[in-house]
Amino acid sequence: MKFTLRDLKDFEPTFLFISEFPTGQDYATSGHFAVMPGFAFEYHIHKPYHIHVHGLLGSRFALGRESHTDGSGKENHDHMHTLSSSDLHSYGAHKINYAFPHSENEIMGHIGVMVLFSEIGFDLRPSFFFEDFKTFVLQPQVGLIYILELEDGKSFNFKLFGFWALQGIREGKGIGLFSYLKF
Amino acid sequence: MEILLPIFIYIIIFHHEGATIEHGAKKAVGISPLFSQTKILENIGEKWSIFTTLFGEYSFFEDKLSLRLDIPFAFVKRNFSFLILLPH
């Protein structure tokens, strides 16, 4: 079996600067603006199959004053004191957004591998989170990939994936479908 | 009253590894729905939520810099969440 490796100069860590506004106006959602700086890398092996080894080490920092509502929909204006002691002891982190829970400040990362066999492939991505710098969370993720080639270099891309956060504020399972038209 | 109207997530990325399957910055439009069942939902007696994002991505500078625009929204049961209004 013969592999053709790209030049090592292609191994380029890249800096990410991501900002986010969360959604939500009910439950434990919050209004916050966050920046998510981080570093990512990937390494390509394109023969005999299309293989990407990829990784990310990033962080999330919520900015500004936040407001939370509790489970009854009643609003609290100082979210730092809205959680019960049992909540804090259970999760060790400040909960944000029931729809897609995460902590206020956290570190995240993964090292994964994606393999494409022509139009079908898979992606393994064991992720971790360090929620509020207190709780370490493992979140394995696996995805199936399908690429439908169209004319003129366009393609539909689909990735069906599932994940399972084993502990922490985001403890639970999820199923996602990441799809887009590339043109 | 302080009103925050977060309509977009914007993501400025240098070759964002998670942007597309190919990991390269491309021109793309898509959707990313996510069904989640988290333990924290038990606090409000719900079991599932859906978090969906419409996004578009455009690359320039020889694919070294890309701009991604996301429009997120979410459902917890029949409660739709999109904008945030925060009276103070």
Structure overview:
The complex is a heterodimer of chains A (183) and B (88). By secondary structure, chain A is mainly β. Helices cover 4% and strands 55% of the residues of chain A. Chain A contains one helix and 14 strands, in the order βββββαβββββββββ. Chain A has one helix spanning 85-91, and strands at residues 14-20, 33-45, 50-63, 68-69, 75-76, 95-96, 102-103, 105-117, 120-124, 127-131, 135-139, 141-149, 155-165, 172-182. In chain B, β4 and β5 form a beta hairpin. In chain B, 0% of the residues lie in helices and 49% in strands. By secondary structure, chain B is mainly β. The model of chain B is unreliable at 1-18 and 84-88 (pLDDT under 50).
| Silhouette of chain B | elongated
- What is the percentage of strand-forming residues of chain B? over 45%
Largest interface: A-B, 62 and 57 residues
Q: pLDDT average of chain A, as an integer?
A: 75
Given the structure, what is the number of helices of chain A? 1
Order of helices and strands of chain B: EEEEE
Main sheet record of chain A: 10 strands, antiparallel
Tell me what portion of residues of chain A adopts beta-strand conformation. Answer: over 45%
User: What integer value in Å does the Rg of chain B equal?
Assistant: 16 Å
How many extended strands of chain A?
14
Fraction of residues of chain A in helices?
under 10%
The overall strand count of chain B is 5
Separation of termini of chain A? Answer: 34 Å
Low-confidence stretches of chain B: 1-18, 84-88
Helix content of chain B: under 10%
The number of helical elements of chain B comes to 0
Runs of chain A in which pLDDT lies below 50 for 5 or more consecutive residues are: 67-90
